[in-house]
Write a structure and sequence with these properties.
Elements: H1 2-22, E1 23-31, E2 42-45, E3 51-53, E4 59-65, E5 69-73, E6 80-83, E7 92-93, E8 121-125, E9 131-134, E10 140-143, E11 163-166, E12 169-171, H2 173-177, E13 184-190, H3 192-199, E14 207-212, H4 222-228, E15 259-263, H5 269-279, H6 291-295, E16 311-319, E17 327-335, E18 346-353, H7 364-375, E19 383-389, E20 393-401, H8 405-413, H9 423-436, E21 443-450, H10 461-472, E22 477-482, H11 490-499, E23 502-506, H12 510-519, H13 521-525, E24 527-538, E25 543-549, E26 555-556, E27 569-572, E28 576-585, E29 615-624, E30 632-639, H14 650-665, H15 676-685, H16 694-704
Parallel strand pairs: 1-7, 11-14, 18-19, 18-21, 21-22, 22-23
Antiparallel strand pairs: 1-4, 2-3, 2-5, 5-6, 8-13, 9-10, 11-12, 13-14, 15-24, 15-26, 16-17, 17-28, 19-20, 24-27, 24-29, 25-28, 29-30
Helix pairs in contact: 7-8, 7-12, 9-10, 10-11, 14-15, 15-16
Pfam families: CarbopepD_reg_2 (PF13715), Plug (PF07715), VWA (PF00092), vWF_A (PF12450), YfbK_C (PF12034)
Domain VWFA: 347-525
Keywords: Signal
Length: 709
Amino acid sequence: MKSLKLISSAIAMLICFVTMAQERTITGTVTDESNSPLPDVQIAIKGTKTGTQTDFDGKYKIKTQKGDALVFSYVGMKSETVIVQNSNVIDIVLKGYSNQLSEVVVTGYHTTKKQMITGSVAMVRSTASGVQVQNSVGYLASLDYSFKMPRESSSLSQKNEPMYIIDGVPAKANQMAKINPNDIDNVSVLKDQSATSIYGSKASNGVVVISTKSNLYKNLSEKELDQKLNILPIPAEPTQEDYDTFVENAFESPKTAPLSTFSIDVDNASYTNIRRFLNNGQQVPKDAVRVEEMVNFFKYTYPQPKNEHPFSINTEVSDSPWNSNNKILKIGLQGKNIPTDDLPASNLVFLIDVSGSMSDLNKLPLLKQSFKILVNELRPKDKVAIVVYAGAAGMVLPPTSGKEKKTIIDALDKLESGGSTAGGAGIELAYKTATENFIKGGNNRVILATDGDFNVGSSSNSDMEKLIEEKRKTGVFLTCLGYGMGNYKDSKMEILADKGNGNYAYIDNIQEANRFLGKEFKGSMFAIAKDVKIQIEFNPKQVQAYRLIGYENRKLRPEDFKNDAIDAGELGSNHTVTALYEIIPAGVKSDYLTAQTDDLKYTKTETNSNNYNNELATIKFRYKKPDGEKSIEMVQVIENKSIALNKASDDMKFSTAVAWFGLKLRDSKLIADKSSEGIVKLAKQGNSNDDEGYKAEFIRLVKTTKQYN
């Protein structure tokens, strides 16, 4: 009996060994007909519950045996079945349905006769039950007609999504999926030219129009729609985004560091990027927060210059809201407002990234709509060329007059994404085009639009920095526009803008594109002063310590101030720039002061009988004219006069509130009070001159973001 058990055990072990010997790992890539990888393809061993799915790059791995049947399934595409033979690598190409929606009809916001529509349409009435509508990201809604949306070739599932309209309101797939089927009156589907003629290029993958029986969701905002459908915020997820790390400015003593020198910063990309994270319910990366860019997103009511200089200087001192014993010094510049007709002619080169990483809806499609806003601002005397780059660079539109708007827009509409990201060749061609068409005394500018995921030389940031510094010598200015999320390379965009006589904005939606490229076109695109530097000498009789809030990557050495070879920021027509200092007054005890040192023997300043008791600091500015090479200096004394925060200007209150929120997001160790309630209260007190609603939006962001309450 014992021997039988031993034999049985041996046989079982042998079977197990043979099975293990036959089992192997199959790997491969699943693509569509255009060779774009497909993520989330379902792969199952037929007749079993074993399966897997492809990753972001269309790759998969599965353990199986020879003779097993692998079934590859993807919504909107034909399934493929492959028998495992001798090879351990199985690559699959899935094909779309050529006759999808061939019997269907659709309408948009208005009623359209079936005979008037070109392309396939479908109208679905709520007369049957048990039928399902499914989209390519897996959301499922029980409706009364079975269909699959047409899909284009793409490496990302988001691109394959149709557009959704619920009771006339644009919606997302997860919102569509949460609607109660019993509330639906009808579902309409539109594709091809019928979709794009009504909704534009964003409807290139079709439109699903859902009408409820009582217009339950009419006129709701996206957040209100989420709340009504009980949809939770998008969870925070790790990303492949790239931000330069930096350490916030510490307090310094005017005895050991009497001069504070920095370049102005007109960029505001950090604020719109932060807004994107907060609106998505995601954690804001600490290094994505540049406080000065948050402050400078908003416009303030500084007076126009009244002398020969291109900007006015405005200072104000009040209490610190986060450290009660400290003071805040606000420095505000207001650029001269030049009427549009008096602005010089523009020679613009659009440098557009059309690589594969730009395929998302919030990248190239949004980019094209953004540039159309800019094109509408052009005058007949302006000219535009379009250069694109992916695996290689090329010109798709030679320099064309601003009056030929249709020609320029047609060229934009034809752009498609695909290929690698060799940006160096694109930059070379764009600057070559700009210099060949250079307008003396004009606005010569390259406008780069990308997600920043591109390579120059060995792909290191130092190679890119050298290239753009060399191109700066041509006299051509640079505007950088950032798009997208997930793989966004903010660090590269910062380098380009900082080193290339440039400015930088992040476009998170069409409203931001309209603000930066439309309403603020003059300030964004026309420099009235370049290489603007600020240097402050604090009076040690009044100031025990000071620190510049933000501007960490814009700080300069004291000797750089008068060195005209050192690059600095540009100021545009009617632009405002704001900088804030936190001051520890003389005689105030503070936990933020570093260890004190004895007075130095050789650098001790002789006591002046004047003592400058009425002066807090002396501030100097240097700038060059847009086509000049020699800087001009301005000097102004700041009085030792502080007003209570509740009596300070609205600009003082609001700019300080924005800086406060930025320091909170960075988890600054130099602020004692981190209450969202205090930030909201101060921002509300300073909320004036907000015709566009941006300040009110900021207050909502602070109030409604749970993670920061």
